[in-house]
Amino acid sequence: MICENLEKIRKKIAHAARKSGRAPEEIKLLAVSKRMDTSKIEEAYKCGQLLFGENFIQEAREKISRLDNSISWHFTGHLQSNKAKTAVQLFQMIETVDRLKIAQALNRHAAGYDKSLDILVQINIGREEQKSGVDPQNVEQFMSKLGTLHNLNIRGLMIMPPFSPDPEKTRPYFRALKNLADQCQVQGYFAEDSPIVLSMGMTNDYTIAIEEGATLVRIGTAIFGKRT
Ligand SMILES: *Cc1c(COP(=O)(O)O)cnc(C)c1O
Q1: Number of the ligand 1 atom closest to the C-alpha atom of 203
Q2: Domain that holds residue 93
């Protein structure tokens, strides 16, 4: 079942890409495996899925230790400073950097391991009180502060937009993030050695996110089924 799901999703990704004049290879699929057993991750891995996302450090640590080390992992949950060291050990990318304190902790631990850590800045694009992310109005200021943290590569931006059952309602938020990323690029805030990452779009709305410029879609339910 997981293989069929992945196949279907890859086709839909390719279709949405071509529809908007983009190459399908520009878009990466992150399989969000939080609260899914390692057996399901293995199943997806056997079908060629090599990139997974986890939201909880403890859960991720256990799973990663049991799985093949050719898998790449992104952290997509809310990160606390006291978990920053473990996060640096486990993940190839942290997608949810939204506070200077977290960025500084990640930078310090990355330096300690003599490595360069890829990060995304999470934006609270709908300016929702209960959500994490940098307020769009404070992005410039935040980005310029990150610029002094030399062991972090700022690869792009990530959002969890306000939820709507109608994915068309989410389109303006995707478009707004693309605009924000373009502005940040002009300002020179992103690492320049690879294309800018726009992490947006989930099970319910990923094709629309791709039409609006997503380069990384984060999908859980459509691959693994409903989380319990
Ligand atoms: C759970 C989660 C997803 C996947 O959501 P689905 O609707 O199951 O595809 C994507 N991104 C983040 C940050 C998540 O926490």
Answers
A1: 9
A2: 57-213
